[in-house]
């Protein structure tokens, strides 16, 4: 999704807790054509750390005196039945999947208000935020995604109206993907926590998705193409939740 925004001319700052960016970032960075004004830059940040996020995001916004959008995608997975789920793992999951999105959105909204930018945000939830995801035992992950969908509605309501002083006018939506082939999901297959064949069968299209299939949706939600859309959850899941 970052690549899609950069291809469209956006300058995209990618934040992740890894000391070095993932390989996909480096491949995308090589492909971005500087003649369109787009770019990709990496920053190390942990979305559970409020002060760290505020510092990085205010530094980024301060450079060009603006911040136009946020895609909040950091997330973790932990597969265990509810009866055996360790309490500390519940807290760890919610700290990243829910609080991390909250803190990221708030830090960005503060900068958008500071520079009077009517920005747009996209929270990466999941189809697992609206269904129990048949056969996949992830009660906290799934409910953390439901919480993100509800958070988007509430922040959309709080920040939607542009005020006379130029603040506000910020749109907030969710994107809820179906199964995507990513390191997180490959790990689920490797550990035997999920059955690839069953997941393919769950989709009306009979297959998993690739990350590239969400690029246009990210661009849609962050650009004026979606200017009258806020508080919504865009589900792109190969039809998995539609039957
Ligand atoms: N893969 C899927 O099938 C699927 C489906 C629906 C939704 N999602 C969601 O998409 C998002 C990306 O998932 P993915 O499949 O690419 O997973 P991934 O594990 O491949 O990538 C997640 C990234 O988040 C980073 N991260 C984790 N905790 C962090 C923290 N505290 N601070 C900063 N960065 C942190 C990790 O370092 C990693 O680079 C997640 O929110 C996930 O829940 C994934």
UniProtKB/TrEMBL annotation:
Alphabetical keyword list: NADP, Oxidoreductase
GO molecular function: oxidoreductase activity, acting on NAD(P)H, oxygen as acceptor; oxidoreductase activity, acting on the CH-OH group of donors, NAD or NADP as acceptor
SUPFAM superfamilies referenced in this protein's UniProt entry, alphabetically: NAD(P)-binding Rossmann-fold domains
Record-linked PROSITE patterns: ADH_SHORT (PS00061)
The family this protein is said to belong to: Belongs to the short-chain dehydrogenases/reductases (SDR) family.
Protein name from the UniProt record: NAD(P)-binding protein
Organism (species): Amniculicola lignicola CBS 123094
């Amino acid at each position: 999704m970052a690549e899609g925004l950069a291809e469209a001319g956006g300058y995209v700052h990618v934040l992740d807790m890894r000391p070095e960016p993932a390989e996909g970032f480096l491949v995308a960075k090589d492909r971005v054509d500087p003649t369109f004004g787009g770019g990709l830059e990496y920053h190390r940040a942990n979305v559970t750390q409020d002060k760290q996020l505020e510092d990085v995001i205010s530094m980024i916004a301060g450079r060009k005196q603006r911040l136009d959008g946020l895609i909040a995608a950091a997330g973790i997975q932990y597969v265990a039945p509810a009866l055996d789920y360790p309490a500390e793992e519940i807290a760890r999951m919610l700290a990243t999947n829910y609080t991390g999105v909250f803190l990221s959105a708030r830090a960005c909204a503060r900068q958008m208000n500071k520079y009077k930018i009517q920005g747009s945000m996209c929270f990466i939830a999941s189809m697992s935020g609206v269904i129990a995801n048949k056969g996949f035992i992830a009660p906290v992950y799934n409910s953390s995604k439901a919480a993100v969908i509800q958070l988007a509605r509430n922040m959309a309501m709080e920040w939607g109206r542009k005020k006379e002083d130029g603040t506000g006018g910020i749109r907030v939506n969710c994107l809820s993907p179906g199964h995507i082939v990513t390191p997180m999901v490959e790990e689920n297959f490797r550990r035997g926590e999920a059955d690839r064949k069953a997941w393919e069968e769950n989709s009306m299209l009979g297959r998993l998705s690739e990350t590239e299939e969400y690029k246009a949706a990210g661009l849609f939600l962050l650009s004026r193409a979606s200017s009258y859309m806020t508080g919504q959850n865009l589900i792109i899941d190969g039809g998995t939740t539609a039957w």
